[in-house]
Structures are given as structure tokens and as C-alpha cells.
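Interim report to the steering committee. The following record documents the input for 1,4-alpha-glucan branching enzyme GlgB (728 residues).
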Amino acid sequence: MSPAVPSPVPVETDTLRAVAHGSWYDPHGVLGAHVGYGGVTVRTLRPLADAVVIITPETRVPARHEQDGIWVAVLPGDSVPDYRIEVTYGGTTTLTDDPYRYLPTVQELDRHLIREGRHEALWTVLGANVRTYPGLLGQVDGTAFAVWAPNARAVRVVGDFNYWQGAAHAMRSLGDSGVWELFVPGVTAGARYKFEILTQDGTWRQKADPMARGTEVPPATASVVVESTYTWGDDAWLEARAAHDPHTAPLSVYEVHLGSWRAGLSYRELAHQLTEYVVDLGFTHVELLPVAEHPYAPSWGYQVTGYYAPSSRFGHPDDLRYLIDTLHRAGVGVIVDWVPGHFPKDEWALAQFDGTALYEHPDPLIGEQPDWGTYVFNFGRNEVRNFLVANAVYWLTEFHVDALRVDAVASMLYLDYSRQPGQWRPNKHGGRENLEAIAFLQETNATAYRHAPGIMMIAEESTAWPGVTAPTDHNGLGFGLKWNMGWMNDTLRYMAEEPVHRRYHHGEITFSMVYAYSERYILPISHDEVVHGKGSLYGRMPGDHWQKTAGVRTLLAYQWTHPGKQLLFMGQEFAQPDEWSESRSLDWWALQDPLRAGVQRMVRDLNALYRRTPALWQLDHTPDGFEWIDSNDADHNVLAYVRKGVDCPPVVVVVNFAGVAHENYRLALPSGGRWAEIFNTDVLEYGGSGVGNLGAVQAQPDPHHGRPASALVRVPPYGVILLSPEQG
């Protein structure tokens, strides 16, 4: 009597039909290999195939068509062997692997951490991760796809590899984690893909991967599988960075929009041209407007759809690594703008991701940002908070970024930000503070500083919220530095006045010292100040061409010598004539003008002086580093003050905002003796009028303004001079 032919493990007809259409939540429970009924049942979905054979190291077993393109075969034995699938369509036979024979690539610990919102390396398990598996029939290369979509009825991955037909690559649900997962053999770096999500209303929606590490070049919207092969060369930079406190070091930041600094350059071209330029001018850091992928170029990167994907407009993610590495090896730090406060409503991206308000807050009185027509993240949801916290860690660790400047913090802190009465919802205590956003910012900052020694977290925060740079264990937000928007607004408003009127606005230029030590500040003249009809920095200055360029020199020298670090947007270092536009390069032609070239030359020298003069940066965040000499000379439009450091000579700064020189101006000084004029913005080389003090002044024992000595000095028009006691 011949042995009984083993039967396949039975599956209900309706389930087979759902599997065949890619709408079953657990395709791995049907497809792939399953032990039982006297053998190993293998089911595979191969619509329109003429023949299917299961191949193992020992045998070949023909499969039969079962239903709706599903083929089934029973292998002998009681354990699952390594196998492949031979499929014939017409006269063509191909050997393929089976996505449904692999165990989950997202482990139980990972799923637990995702549920708890504590997976700080989230990008290593979600998204698209290239993996390699050994086997008796040979090594398998492929990509593990995983996505969080807890309210989906089914999820499929579509892409180049399946002709954008997702039924053959339905993903499995990993239970209450909300994660869907599938390893697809043969899919490697460079493949384009999206997720197809079956929502509760029965609609299939194609969505870009929230965790994608690469994208198509906009306006195309597919995600791209990325595998980094970059070898870093900045070990010395990272070691040195971790050994000191960057918040108290010299910090002179050049803010850059990569697409318009010199239009058309790639990351690798920028690596050489931008690095050479920044090193020549002496800036310590560059700050990049958001480099994460964004579909709309005029948003400048502030409406992000690909939080884990560097913009493909300028090259591969490894090309961005090369840019950052090149800057580091040249001694320049890299700050990146980061936008966790809101995201755009593009239907193919994060918005309504699984058919529900998933990443955004479901209450429109909280979850929509009226200023920008965007959604606000649901900061109180574990998985959403995890998505953002891990994203900060991602940029700091995977791209060696030295600081994140967090955009629009005020919009996150206040529930009534840009909202009229009745258009916002109070917190549980009846207040306007967004308690969930506060907790998110505190967690992000604490996690970032723990993961990446020597980095900085910087807040663009435009209100008087207390403790932005206070430690989280003191109930602060935990940032390292905060943009001083008050200084910026008051200073630019003052500088716009005609010099004859500035005496009536003197309080605006001195007010910043009232609160200068309430936080640890950066003084920003950023992209926001040279767009939307505001004009360039040069264009804001009153007067003729010479007076405008002189005004820019005066402003920048005042900024560099005021307590706090400094940031300057590209183009303003050479007094660009026109306001900035993201659609074209800077006005590099303007450097043919000697006056504008003089401004650039002054910035170069000013940065060099700043970096070698500890008094200008060592005690930026403490009152010990600053003293007024005279803050009340409104009639002459003059400020005079002392900058001090630790065990270094002081620097006396005299700023003249008037359009005329002041001859024989009596200046109080901290001590007698000879004081060298170590910097003068009015020298001929900078395009100035040449008014100065022949290199030094002699202080006499004549008390003035409570100081023991004073000197008669020449103060140049629209000019700044710096004096320091001669040594030896």
C-alpha cells in the first residue's frame, strides 16, 4: 500500500481571497512555509504563473494552483528547509525567494520600546533597512520594510521591484505595537517604494515612508531605499568636541541656504566651495537651513515631509555626510535647523497617515497651525514623541551634526499661539501652556545631550518664556542656547533710523543689556530678516551707498562685541544689495564694488580678532564679562563698554552710530597707560574714511565716569573701535 500523500495545512477560502488581494492583516500566517499535516506546506502568491516549483537543497516539488493566484505545495519532513521558488510565465522561468519565509525583523523588545515611546534608534527598525541573511542556497540580500500604522486594516509595500502592484507584498501586523513588517528579498539600495495603506473606510492610500532615509528628487514623492557606505574622517573633531563646552567657546555662525548660496551646487561641490569660503572668512560654524526633505522649495525647508531623509536635490545622503565631514576636517562645526513643531498637509506624506489623525493632534484647535496651514504634532502620543526624539538623535549621530537649532519653539509652547479667543483649547489646568510640547522639548534636549557629547541644542524662541536654557532638572526646557530675538528686533529698528533721530531711540539699543543674562543667548541676524520686503541688511540702512556700507560694518562689529554668540545670514557679510531669494544665487557680482568687498574683508578680520580674543567670548553668559563705560551718551549716538575674560586683557569697545566723527572724545578707561587700537571698522581697507588713533591712545590719570583714567580719542563716523592695554 503506497503512503498517503500529505495534505496542505487548510486555509479558509475567504482568507485565501483576502491574501490574494493583499488585504489580509497576517499574510505570513497563510503564505510561506508552515509545518503540519505530515509535511511542510508552502503557499506562494504568483498570479498568472503557468507553473511553480518549490526548490530545496534536496528536492524539487511542483506546486498546484489553489485559488486566486495562490499556489500550494507540500514538502516532506517536519522542519522548514531553505527553499526558493521557481516560477514560469510563458516561456520564461525565474528563480525567486519567498518574502514570507522570514521571521519578523522588528523584535519584541523593539515593539515594546516603540509602544513606550523610548526607542532612541528608531530608524534602525522602522523604515527600509537593507539586510543580509546566510542560507544553504546562498546569501540573501534584501530590505526589511516596517511602518507604524496602528489603525490600518492592511498595509502593502509597492515599488519598482513589484511594478507598483502591492498585492504580492502585503505586510504583517505585529499586534498592538501598530507596526507592519515585511522583508523583501532582492530589494537593495536605490529602489523606490511607498506604502499602500487600507484605511478603515476601505480606501487604499499610497504614502511615502515617514522613516525613509532617501527620497526621489521633488516634485516626485517616492521614498528610496538607502544604505550608507560612507567612512568618516572626523574622529579628531568629535574627540575635541566632546572635550570642551561649546556653549562658552567662540561661536560665530554663518547661516546658509544650500540651494541659493551658489545655485546648482551639489553636496559634494558645496563641500569644497562652501568650506573654503567659510574657513577663509573665519566663521566657527555654519548653520544650514533645514536639509530634511521638503516638497516645496519656497518653504526653504521649513515644511518637512521626510524627517529622516536629507534632501535629494543636492545628492545622496552620503554626499551630505561628505559635506559635513569636510567642514569638520577643516575645523568648522555644523548646525542644522530642525522643525519638530509642525508638518504640511500633503496627502502622500504624514497627514492622516493611516486614515486617522496619527502624527497630528486630532483636535483641530490644537492640531492645526493657522499661520502656516500645517498640522501640529501630537506631542502627547508616545509613538509620535518617539518619532521626533529619535529624529534628533539620528541627525546628531548618523550625520555627526554639532547642533540642532529648533525652529519656532514659541509655536509649540503656547496653545493660543497665533489664535484668537475661542480658537484654542486650554490645558488641563486652564492655562495656555502646551504641557505635552514642554515635556517633549525637555526629553529631546536631555536625550540629545546624553547621546552626543559636545553638541548644542539651540532654541529659536521669540517670547519671554522663562528658563529656555535652564536645565530640565530645574524645570527648564534644557536648551543650551537661545536666539535673542529681542536684541535683533531692537537693534534693526534702531539702525533703520536716520542718525539725527537715533538720540530719541537710544533706549532701544541699550535695552538688551537689561536681560542679557536671563538666558544663554545667540544674537541672530538670520534669513528671516532679509526677506518678504524687509530688504537686505544693507538696504535697511539709511543714507547713501557709503553710509549704508559703513552702517553694515558698524552693526556687525557691534554684534560681534555684544555679550552673546553671533549668527549672520549669507550675503550680509558683503552687504548684499538685494534681499535674499531662495530661487537664485547670492549677489556675488556685488563684490566687484570696493565698498562691499571692504565689508567682507572686515568680517574676515573681525572673526580672526574675535577667535583670538577671549574677552569677547569667554564670559558671554555671565555679568562678569561686561561693564558699561557709558550707556547714556544719546546725544552723540555713542556706546562704550568693556568686555572681559578670565586671565586675559580686557577690551574696550566704542560704537559710534552717528554719521559724523567725534574728535577729542573723552573716553573713560579701566586703567592708565597705553591702549592699543586693535580694531577699527573705519580703516581705508574696509572702505572707511580712515579716522582712527594712529594705533594707540595714551590714558591719563584723569578720572571720568567713575573710572580712574581717561583718554581723548578719535571716534570714526558710523564706526567701531576696540582698545586693549598694551602688554609688556
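The first strand starts at residue 32 and ends at 36. The committee is asked to note this result when reviewing the revised timeline.
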